[in-house]
Predict the structure.
Amino acid sequence: MIKRDYKGPVENSIEMAIEKISNLLQHDYYLSSRSIAILLLQEDEGIKNLVKEKDAAGFSGIEQIVAGLKTYYKDPISYELAIERQNEVNEILKKAVKFAKDTINFQERLSRLLMNPVLGIPVFLLVIYFGLYKFVGQFGAGTVVDFIETHLFDKYITPFAENVVTRFIPWQFLRELFVGEYGLITMAFRYAFAIILPITAFFFLFFSLIEDSGYLPRIAMLIDRTFKKIGLSGRAVIPMVLGFGCATMATMVTRILPTKRERIIATLLLALAVPCSAQLGVIMALLQHNPIALFIWAGVIGFIFLLVGYLTSKILPGDRPSFYMEIPPLRMPSVSNVILKTYVRVKWYFKEIMPIFLWAGVLIWLARLANMFDLLVDILKGPLRAIGLPQEAGKAFLFGFFRRDYGAAGLYDLSAHGKLDGVQLVVSCVALTLFLPCIAQFLMNIKERGWKMGVGISIFVLFFSFSVAYVLNIALRILGVVL
Amino acid sequence: MDKKIILPLSKLELHKKAKVSHIKTEDKAMLQRIIAIGALPNIEVTLIQKFPSFVFQISKSQFAVDKELASCIYVKAV
């Protein structure tokens, strides 16, 4: 083992301090006492607390040594040590490694094009369009989900489950728990396996590709400046992009953000203004024949996203986020790596999400037993009238909470029956996109952010979505917009 | 540009070789980030891009950072 002596005025040198601290350490920390001493000098909080507990007797002496040493240096000891290490590394490198002259090869050229704002942003939009919208949204969430739902579930699994349950459970109310309209098998399992599984599999495949190619940090650096305005850093591009796949999953991924403040802002924006792929699909179907309506919808949602982010970042206390990320070289992703990553992630996600779906199923069953649905639809009538929508839309909104895409599909039925005009369609799409996240996301908000914050965010979203829809409805009517 | 001048990395000319002279920040977390990146005194850096984020190269590694971080790293041209 190479022992490196740290420099400094002799009688106060870092090396002396290390030795003195080592002598005070009695407990066996598994690491050498020298390593522990160096970590203590760097004021590592975890190690400090550990030593305080295990070496209570010597701790005040250690603190004195650290404090004493600090008075001899202008900069923090961790910085002094980092410089020492860096010098040592350079000495070794000088003897051991020869660097080829830097040349700008094809990869580097491509990398700079992707980071260039003029070219990089259009490329980013194309990647999102083809990767997220076409591949994950239309193919994964559309074609593949339809196939699994209609061929596997509607034909085989659901009838089989209904048969078994009807035979063995004599009570209708209990049958409902398993195979009713919102049963654990007919809804929770079907939702998880026929809808979430394919969507997340396709999504994670896309995500692993942009991750392994090294493209992701380049998106983060392009978007950092914009995200700073809403209290987030470029790093938050990861949960935000994930949100277009499944906002519940994205809420879980906000764990990668370094501060609580960033995690709260990201969770709120995901709950409010990021539509998931299931929902996007139906909204696109509703508005596709009406480009101006689609444009208004996207404009309002985009504006709300930025506005709420901006205001939240002004209100929430805490430091501005900081952005730093290594930009790895661009690489051709390895097929086996991408497949393995996708598999591991889907598995991990399932383990996290499955209990939440089952809980949601039980909650819905209880709510239906208590006739809560009719009550809630009744409560929704007033706000719906205020935003100019027929009361039949109440069901769509309520279902929206249990399954975001169900809600949108409910609107689709209303529109197909000619019950909504263009303005009503846009207003309801905006309200539904902003409206409470699905029940799985609601439970995830509570799991990740705690009771107070999770419920708080949901109440805010509830009132805010209707307020925006109210204002939008009045604005469009006053302006005499006909869609 | 005067060769002896010391200036923050955020103000360095693109593609000009420079060496880190010192780090200036009172924020411990910020210093920790800079240590993690390895932008320490006497290390050679080249600025590759300034907008929308700052991208610089140290040896064979590239880093993207925001203006606040880039302004804490002081460099002198070599």
Summary: Chain B has a mean pLDDT of 92.
